[in-house]
Write a structure and sequence with these properties.
CATH topology: TIM Barrel
Number of domains: 1
Strand order of the largest sheet: 3-4-5-6-7-8-11-12
Order of helices and strands: EEEHEHHHEHEHEHEEEHEHEHHH
Helix content: 25-40%
CATH class: Alpha Beta
Bound molecules: flavin mononucleotide
Number of helices: 12
Low-confidence stretches: none
Oligomer: single chain
Number of strands: 12
Radius of gyration: 20 Å
């Protein structure tokens, strides 16, 4: 059975990629992931704020936790400094045979972009660019945000030879138009979608509370929809990230159009051996259904044969609402 896939122009032995996370901080853990079957690893992000530091605001006496959250961490509070990040890329590359993807996290064109070249020189096989931002100013229009993103992608892809993937937010008015524009700007792949960490409110302390929650399987549905919409429209690779917890989720992501499937939460919960469990499940299912090659599945259930995907989505929506009877 052939599970090999092309992702960002890289030949992967199978579609399972360990998504951006702290796993690669420890080379021993990274090797366990490779031994368990992971086809590539994405390192945690290096942030624009680490490379172009904003003014450091410290929590002042009497300042509430909410007010203190307005300040960025001090440079020493980041897990990997830029120099250590580069050394870790080199170290991972010397210890692993699978591709290592570095991650840059920022959105404003600026001098931080120059770091992409150093990541390439350190041996990174690709760069994943995470555009995490929450636009809160009413004066900032959607096209301004997207123009900056396109400019950033153009600057990075113009500076390096390795492929650059963009980890996109689902909160754009036209995800399809933006994805095509990102591809034209040089992106070799689109990763759908960034998860937004949403603070809760602690009623006991009457404070805003930031917690990192692992994903839920239900989060995959949004990704499946957009993989199915985007896959006939792009030549760039597609990856799913968010809500992949079982082998069936891997199969569904590929059927919808993913060339690679990122996993993080499920590995944090169950450890590296879960990678081989997911791969075995995928292979058994393929065998049962007479599939020999993962390429036979890729995009099989995308919206290629759908004349008008927007009408299809709306018709499905209306039919679903109408099917509920009291
Ligand atoms: C502990 C943790 C750290 C993460 N760090 C990063 C990061 O540095 N950069 C990034 O782009 N995504 C980061 N992510 C997001 C993951 O790469 C992934 O997109 C998200 O968790 C959804 O995938 P999942 O459902 O498999 O967890 C992190 C997620 C977790 C849980």
């Amino acid at each position: 059975m052939n599970l090999a896939t092309d992702y960002l122009g890289l030949r992967l032995r199978n579609p399972l990629v360990v998504g951006a996370s702290p796993f690669c901080d420890d080379t021993y853990v990274a090797r366990r992931l490779e031994d368990s079957g992971a086809a590539a690893l994405v390192m945690r992000s290096l942030f624009e704020e680490q490379l172009d530091p904003p003014p450091v605001l410290r929590r002042l006496p009497g300042q509430s936790a909410t007010e203190a959250m307005e300040s960025f961490p001090d440079t020493a509070d980041y897990q990997l400094s830029p120099e250590r990040y580069l050394r870790q890329v080199e170290h991972l590359k010397s210890q692993l045979s699978i591709p290592v993807i570095a991650s840059l996290n920022g959105h404003r064109p600026g001098s931080w972009i120059g770091f992409a070249e150093r990541l390439e020189q350190a041996g990174a096989d690709a760069i994943e660019l995470n555009f995490y931002q929450v636009v809160t100013a009413p004066a900032i229009a959607a096209d301004q945000v997207e123009t900056e993103m396109l400019e950033t992608v153009g600057l990075i892809t113009g500076a390096v030879k390795i492929p650059v993937a963009v980890k996109l937010s689902p909160f754009h008015a036209s995800v399809a138009q933006l994805s095509v524009a990102l591809e034209l700007a040089g992106a070799a792949g689109i990763v759908v979608f960034n998860r937004f960490y949403q603070p809760d409110i602690n009623l006991e302390d009457v404070e805003v509370q930031s917690t990192l929650r692992l994903s839920e399987p239900s989060e995959l549905l949004l990704r499946l929809r957009w993989l199915a919409i985007l896959s006939p429209q792009l030549r760039a690779s597609l990856a799913a990230t968010g809500g992949v917890h079982a082998w069936g989720d891997v199969a569904k992501s590929i059927l919808a159009g993913a060339n690679a499937v990122h996993v993080v939460s499920v590995v944090l919960k169950h450890g590296p051996p879960v990678i081989s469990t997911l791969l075995h499940g995928l292979q058994s299912w393929m065998r049962c259904h007479g599939y020999e090659d993962v390429q036979q599945l890729c995009g099989l259930l995308n919206l290629k044969r759908c004349g008008d995907p927007a009408a299809f989505e709306r018709a499905n929506y209306i039919r679903t609402l109408q099917s509920w009877k009291v």
